[in-house]
Design brief:
single chain, 4 helices
C-alpha cells in the first residue's frame, strides 16, 4: 500500500526524523531544488526551534492506574 503525503506533512515528519530514509533522501533533494519548498522547510525549522521545550511527567496515580490496567488485562489474556 502506497501512502500519499503532502509536502507539508512530509516536511514535518522529516523535521522530527520520522520519515523513512528513502523519503528523506527524495525530499531533501526536492527541497534543495525548489526554492518555495526550501523556504517552507526553513520556516518550519525555525518554528520548531522556537517551540518551548516542555516535559510532561505523569503523576504517580496515573502510572499506578496504567500498571494496574496492564496487570489486569495480562491476567485476563491468560484465562
Amino acid at each position: 500500500m502506497q501512502q500519499n503525503y503532502t509536502y507539508d506533512e512530509a516536511m514535518v515528519l522529516m523535521l522530527y526524523r520520522e520519515l523513512a530514509v528513502p523519503g528523506m533522501i527524495d525530499l531533501s533533494a526536492q527541497i534543495q531544488e525548489d526554492s518555495d519548498l526550501n523556504e517552507a522547510f526553513s520556516d518550519m525549522l525555525l518554528a520548531k526551534t522556537r517551540l518551548p521545550k516542555v516535559l510532561f511527567n505523569p503523576s504517580n496515580q496515573v502510572l499506578n492506574n496504567i500498571l494496574q490496567y496492564s496487570t489486569k488485562t495480562a491476567m485476563e489474556a491468560t484465562l
